[in-house]
Amino acid sequence: MYWFIILFPLLIYPWGIDPYYTTTKMWYLDLFVLGTWIYLIIKRRHRAIIPEKNNSAIEIFLIIFLLLIEVSTAFSKYTYTSVHGTIDRGEGLITFFSYISVFLFSYRLIDMKKLNNVISGMVIVSIFISIYGILQHYSFDFLPRNSAMRGYPGTYTFFDNPNFFGSYLVLVLLLTITLYLTVNNNKLSSLYFITVCLNFIALIFSNTRSGYVGVFCGVVFLSIFVVYKRKYLWKKWSLLLLTLGLLLLTIDITEKGHYFNRISSVVSESYSIVSNQTTGYEGSSRYFIWKESLPLVKEYFWTGSGPDTFEFIFPATPDELQYYLGNPNIKVDKAHNEYLQIAITLGTPALLAYLLFLFAVFRKLHQAVKMVTGKEKIILFGLTSTIIGYLVQAFFNISTVPVAPLFWSILGISLAKSNLHLKNAKTQNSHMEITDKYKSA
């Protein structure tokens, strides 16, 4: 599990007529999960993944979420797609089971001493991926492109789409910033500083506005809850933010103002929506997709249409597709809002179960943060900011196989670390109570 999490972004198969890494990563993921379950059953270690009693709420919400996905699959008109997912997306029932399994494996199977090392490993791997993304931006592309990306100037590396690459960078960038804030060693601090810069440049080149917003929210969270209360980090934090600002300014000047226009469009398009002056093109026509999709929530309220079946029920006419998306035959297979996607394809009860599960994880993180100090407190805040950043960008983006397992793994790691600190705090309090009674006697 340790090595799978670290190396998963690099697990590609760049050969063949039309290499598409999402499909490849789906096979890697499913085979790994299947192999791990077989191993646990044969070795009779399956009990190892059962959560402790104090996490029963999280376990219950997760089981309910999986059961509701199975119900949605059973009642769907599109059974095969619901089980296996659509071509090149692959987010059917099997994949959701794999996501949940990755969460449980990350939470229960990774050695507690290696939890921080997993985060460091993910950050180190992101160096190579970010460098490749930067090179790709300047047309130094060493791997064959799939048919959808031939001639496309954007940066997407091993994730098939710039938006997927952006959601990955939200995770690793906020994790890298967290490590940067925790280390005192000059060499490690320099390494993480450079890594943050590389991740940030790659994020800029990904052109993913949802990624920009997600990272911004994560950085604001860290500024308020970590840096503001620790004066010894102010100089380090100011240096990082100033450097990132100068990088953005320099890149924007060399790219003739393209990226500042992208960033400012987030504000202008948000204002158009709030002031009811929409055209439908907001968010690269996402607003049109949301507006057309919203009535489907009521229609598929209880069980949804089935996992990954959005393209079969999206109601837009060919004329609307031509007007807003430029192609009357284009298939809109995602709602481009992860929460709307879940509500429509899996049902509103499934969305509620998913949100309650996330709330339970946040609650556990919050409880643990109050029990620790120093470096570990910053790491827990950093994990919280990473989850927040991903969930924010997910409002404008979609869940995808190359990235989602990493997010579910981070949820598992966050819960494992929280439980470890809560358990240690409880043990320490018990020892103190025993000591106090002994002294009183």
Can you put this structure into words, describing what you see?
With 441 residues, the chain is mostly helical. It has one domain. The radius of gyration is 22 Å and the shape is globular.
Distance between the termini: 49 Å
The gross shape turns out to be: globular
Low-confidence stretches: none
Number of domains: 1
Question: How many helices?
Answer: 18
Into which percentage range does the β-strand content fall? under 5%
Overall mean pLDDT: 91
Instruction: Give a quick account of the main beta sheet: strands, pairing sense, barrel closure.
Output: none
Strand tally, please? 0
SS content category = mainly alpha
Helix content: over 70%
Concise structural overview:
This protein has 441 residues and is mainly α. It has one domain.
What is this structure's SSE topology?
Layout: H1 2-7, H2 21-42, H3 56-75, H4 79-84, H5 93-108, H6 115-137, H7 162-182, H8 186-206, H9 209-227, H10 234-254, H11 258-274, H12 282-299, H13 310-313, H14 318-325, H15 338-345, H16 348-369, H17 374-393, H18 404-440
Helix pairs in contact: 2-5, 3-5, 3-16, 5-18, 6-7, 6-8, 7-8, 7-9, 7-17, 8-10, 9-17, 15-16, 16-17, 16-18, 17-18
Question: Which key phrases capture this entry?
Answer:
70% helix; 441 residues; single chain; mainly alpha
